[in-house]
Design a protein that fits this description.
The chain is an alpha/beta fold and 260 residues long. It is built from nine helices and eight strands. It has an eight-stranded mixed β-sheet, sandwiched between helices.
Length: 260
Amino acid sequence: MTLKEEATVAWYEHGISRIYYEEEGGGDPLLLLPGWSLSIRDLAPVRQALAPRYHVIAADAPGAGRSGPQPRKYTASYFHDDSRAFLGLLRDLRAGPTHVVGFSDGGEYALVMAELEPAAVRSIVAWGAAGRLAAPKELVAAFSEIVDNPIPPLQEFSGYLTSTYGKDNARAMAQSWTKALTEMIDAGGDISRERAEEIACPALLITGENDSIAPPGVVSELAGAMQNADFMEAKGAGHTVHHESPDWLIATIVAWLEKH
């Protein structure tokens, strides 16, 4: 890829989705994906550390950040639908085999992408991703009321959703997302775990010691099922390792990618 000294902004159309992405840096391509409802701004420190070494393609997931549609109607197939959209983006950019680095939903996308199109994914770094829905069902259900009646652990996130998307849009997207996740849980909760043995590219799976969404035991088991995966636990951290242990996470990602 051509060296890019400054970030460029572009859009990619895929079905009804309009994906916003930015490119910067030079070297091997690397797709950077944030978690549900978050934008690429949430991963700015990670991106800044990677841009001097890689051609970073930072993308907002459909329905989040600056990507459309908004409010999005989520379905039980959205992980695979979005993963196909990101694979389409990489083909459109002629990126070739790409490192995929993602948080939470972004990490889940990376795993699914490696199953759907192994040749497109050079390596995976994911934190807060478990390959299946492992969060307590009552926590998932609480997201349906996150705008109007958030439980204490979700109050800060409720404020983020409302200030970012507006109260009506935030409520619609949270309720739709909760319904989709509940359908997935009722069907067994699988995202990529059932086919994890097929993932052959090098992978680093990280989760926080206190992460209830991607518990260490579940993530460690997923790494063990994959062909070439390492597992690391962020001591003292919860789900948002990039906020709670940013220096450790960035150093870990950079060092691991340099070996792969």
